[in-house]
Structures are given as C-alpha cells and as structure tokens.
Design a protein that fits this description.
By secondary structure, the protein is α+β, with helices and mostly antiparallel strands. It folds into 2 domains: 166 residues, 60s Ribosomal Protein L30, Chain: A, CATH 3.30.1330; 73 residues, CofE-like fold (Alpha-Beta Complex). The chain is 26% helix and 23% strand. Strands 1-12-2-8-9 form a 5-stranded mixed beta sheet. Helix 1 packs across helix 5 and helix 3 crosses helix 4.
Length: 253
C-alpha cells in the first residue's frame, strides 16, 4: 500500500464563464504544473467553476417568490427570491432559523441553503450560483476527456463546502464522483489484531475532497483544481450517491 499522498494545486486556472471547456482548462493546468497524468491519479474540481461553466448563475431580479418562499423567508430572514431558488432546488425543508434554511437537496444530500452561494461570483450584487444540474455526469465527462487525452485511468471529484451536523466548520465534500470509490466498504476486513471490522465504511471521496480543500481555500485563493497522486486504493466506477444516507437511517431527519 502506498505510503505517500501528494496534493498539488494547478496554477493559473483562468476565471471561468458560461460555456467554458473545463476539460481543456484542466489539461492546460496540468501542463502548466508539469504534471502528466498517471493511472490512479485524481483531480478534484471546485463546484464553483463547474456551475459557472454550465451557466448556473441566476439573477435574483428575474425570480418571483412564491407564497411558500415568502413564508420561509420571514422565518429565516433571507431574501424571498433566494428562498424561492432554494425551494426549487430542494425536495424538503428540514430546519430553519435566522440566516439558514437546511434542506434535502434534489440531488439527494442535506445542505444549507441548497448549496446556493454568491461568494466568488462575478457580476452584479444580486447574482447567485446554483449547484450543477448533475454533478456525477459532469465529473464523468471530465474523466472521459482526460482519459482520452492521456490514455490512463483517472478519477474526478467535484468538491463543495458543506457543514456537518455534529461539528462546527465547513469541510470539502464530494458532490460529483467519477472513477473514485466514493464509499470504501471495509466490513469484514481484519483490524491490526485480526478481528473483522463490522461497521467501518469510509467516505473516501469526501476525504479526498476535504484534503483538496486545504489548498483550494474558501476566499480569494483562486485554486479551483487540485491534483492528487498516491491513492492507496484502486479506482472503480462510482458516484456520489453512495455517500448519501437513506432517510430511514438518518437520525437527524
């Protein structure tokens, strides 16, 4: 098993707009960093540039809030137009308090404000950015382009920053996965003393996303792509839904 994991930020990634070719941007970034992809490498890509490339920016002036949005906006003290977008991106409202609306996102995970954000979005003040329509598909498209270009098997993760029910602070979280085992099932594997593990499942894609976030940062770093080498596990077909706990097993819902 590999004993070293290297995490490298790709330099000089340009600001991304709607219609940008992310695969070409990744290739150029790798070349600028002097990295030639090898089998088993993983690229972690910030959700922001994926959403921007896919044209997921919305002008709040174009949004008409529904009566339900007005009701929730009064509770969480948010712009009713933003709340309308949150509701459109969600299947269920779970919690609300001033400043935050926690929802079950249409993609299957729980998130504050449906992952809608205005930070690092270029333009007028009332522009917000939605999450990609289908992050797993977006990751798979980038993976296919990279594999065709370099002739090796690689993984791609789309990373977003999420809070956690048990702890303070946001961490990098995988919302789109291609080629990387999203969930690593170690049940039945022996521990150090030969006893079989009974419940251990590792959110590997989330761990990689969190590691990449150390370099990506949360503010003005402009580091939206990170290369990881040395993953001590084999790549396989996967998607982010492996990480989503079913509602029946979620003690917080």
């Amino acid at each position: 098993m590999a004993q070293q994991l290297t995490i490298s930020a790709l330099p000089d990634i340009p600001l991304v707009g709607a219609g940008a070719d992310l695969s070409a941007i990744l290739v150029n970034g790798l070349q600028a960093a002097g990295i030639r992809l090898q089998t088993g490498d993983v690229l972690v890509v910030a959700q922001k540039i994926v959403s921007k490339a896919e044209g997921r920016q919305v002008l709040l002036a174009d949004v008409t809030p529904s009566p339900e949005a007005l009701r929730w906006a009064a509770i969480c003290e948010k712009d009713p137009r933003l709340v309308e977008l949150i509701l459109q991106e969600s299947s269920e409202v779970l919690r609300a308090r001033p400043g935050v609306l926690v929802v079950a996102h249409r993609l299957g995970f729980v998130a504050a404000n449906a992952g809608i954000d205005a930070s690092n979005v270029q333009g007028v003040d009332d522009v917000v950015l939605l999450l990609p329509k289908a992050p797993d598909t977006s990751a798979a498209q980038m993976q296919a382009a990279l594999q065709a270009r370099f002739g090796v098997s690689v993984g791609v993760i789309i990373n977003d920053s999420h809070g956690r029910a048990w702890r303070n602070g946001t961490v990098g979280t995988a919302i789109g996965v291609a080629g990387v085992p999203a969930l690593l099932d170690l049940r039945g594997a022996p521990d150090l003393f030969g006893r079989p593990l009974h419940i251990t499942q590792v959110g590997l894609a989330d761990e990689l996303a969190a590691a990449a976030s150390i370099l990506m940062g949360q503010a003005a770093e402009r580091v939206p792509v990170v290369h990881i080498r040395g993953l001590p596990y084999s790549l396989r077909d996967s998607n982010a839904s492996e990480l989503y706990r079913p509602k029946a097993l979620d003690m917080f819902r």
